[in-house]
From TrEMBL:
Keyword Kinase attached: no
Keyword Ion transport: no
InterPro entries in the record: AIG2-like, AIG2-like_dom, GGCT-like, GGCT-like_sf, NDP_pyrophosphatase, NUDIX_hydrolase-like_dom_sf, NUDIX_hydrolase_CS, NUDIX_hydrolase_dom
Assigned keywords, A-Z: Hydrolase, Magnesium, Metal-binding, Transferase
Protein name, entry field: Putative gamma-glutamylcyclotransferase
Listed CDD domains: GGCT_like, NUDIX_ADPRase
Organism: Sulfitobacter guttiformis
Length: 368
């Protein structure tokens, strides 16, 4: 049986390959190779390539040798989630090998694949995602994991952003020992359970603590503000948390908000969500705050903005994406009424109240 595989795409990135294999791989087992009459193309649906037969072209990659049957099983699990399966080929130097190929109509081919460009932008996220995917190996079938992959990728992108945004609070930098970590639930969101010890302020280590946290991605929140008309736009929609808390008000007022999609910066998300939820084009973003809304129990991280724009009469509408089953109503409120709502605690959304007081502080500057 052939255990030499030709990698033309993301698995050319050694750290990613080692995560999938669950072991380190010797540089001697990875050598440069080419496959004639094939070409690798980026696909529209994700940051990975597909390979297609193409007369006269050459696909560059790596030949991996010394793979075990367990290695192949792990690779099949990972690649199968993207609907790639092995087929036999003969490389340019006559070496028989196998390569992962998808059905021609499975993905939409775009420009030629650029491995270096992919590595610069996507390698870190792909490694984080692969850790979660391979964590399900032996427990969930690959099709189940494939259905969860958009959420897995979003959680992975949140980790990339986590490494980029640091408040630099000048706080205690004590030791942390994770004794055990278990994924207790995974789906649209996820929950991890941990056993851990941490350094105390007196230098001693704590006892082993049992903790858990809810895993959510980064989100961008934006409050549209018209400095000429001195009014804001808020949105109203049904929310799950009030249902779980037996709050009689299921529909809540909020700023425009949405998850930061993989590859996006929070500012891009804010602009996109304003268009999707309220049909607005924002002229400029003012950064208000970045941080955890509930650091004791959730990885959720908010990037909060005020967006300057025109808000004439008739701007309010029903918006949202049908593909995401969104039903969102926007509402225009004068700044005076908006601040009064915050002061009488009629805004049950903490970021929205924060925005009201930030705007009260900066309103004169924005209107000048």
């Amino acid at each position: 049986m052939i255990t030499a595989l030709f990698f033309y795409g993301t698995l050319r990135h050694a750290p990613l390959l080692e995560i999938v294999l669950g072991r380190s791989i010797s540089p001697a087992d990875l050598v440069g190779a080419t496959l004639e009459n094939f070409a690798a193309y980026a696909v529209a649906e994700g940051p990975f390539p597909m390979i297609v037969a193409s007369s006269g072209e050459v696909a560059e990659g790596l030949l991996a040798t010394g793979l075990t049957q367990e290695d192949i099983a792990r690779l099949d699990y990972y690649e199968g989630g993207f609907n790639y399966d092995l087929r036999e080929v003969v490389l340019a130097h006559g070496q028989a090998a196998q390569v992962y190929v998808c059905a021609p109509d499975r993905w939409t081919a775009q420009e030629p694949w650029d491995f270096t460009a992919w590595a610069d932008k996507w390698a870190s996220m792909s490694c984080h995602a692969a850790v979660e995917v391979m964590g399900h190996y032996g427990n969930l079938d690959r099709d189940t994991v494939a259905r969860m992959f958009p959420q897995i990728r979003a959680r992975a992108w949140s980790k990339v952003l986590g490494a980029r945004y640091c408040a630099v609070q000048d706080v205690f930098a004590g030791k942390l020992e994770v004794v055990k970590q278990v994924r207790a639930y995974t789906g649209y969101f996820a929950v991890d359970e941990l056993s851990l010890r941490h350094e105390r302020f007196d230098g001693t280590m704590s006892q082993v603590l049992e903790r858990s946290y809810f895993i959510a991605g980064d989100a961008a929140l934006v409050l549209p503000y018209d400095p000429v008309r001195d009014r804001v736009l808020v949105v109203e929609q049904m929310r799950m948390a009030p249902i779980g808390r037996d709050d009689p008000e299921i529909w809540h007022l909020e700023p425009i908000a949405g998850r930061v999609d993989p590859g996006e910066m929070p500012e891009q998300t804010a602009l996109r969500e304003a268009q999707e939820e309220a049909g607005l084009e924002l002229d400029r973003l003012e950064a208000v705050a970045r941080g955890y809304p509930s650091p004791g129990d959730s990885t959720g991280y908010y990037h909060i903005f005020v967006g300057l724009t025109d808000l004439p009469d008739g701007t309010a509408c029903i918006g949202g994406l049908e593909t995401e089953a969104e039903n969102i109503r926007s509402r225009l409120i004068s700044f005076t009424d908006f601040l009064a709502m915050a002061e009488r605690q009629a805004l049950a959304n903490t970021p929205l109240a924060l925005l009201a007081y930030w705007l009260a502080h900066h309103r004169s500057r924005l209107r000048s």
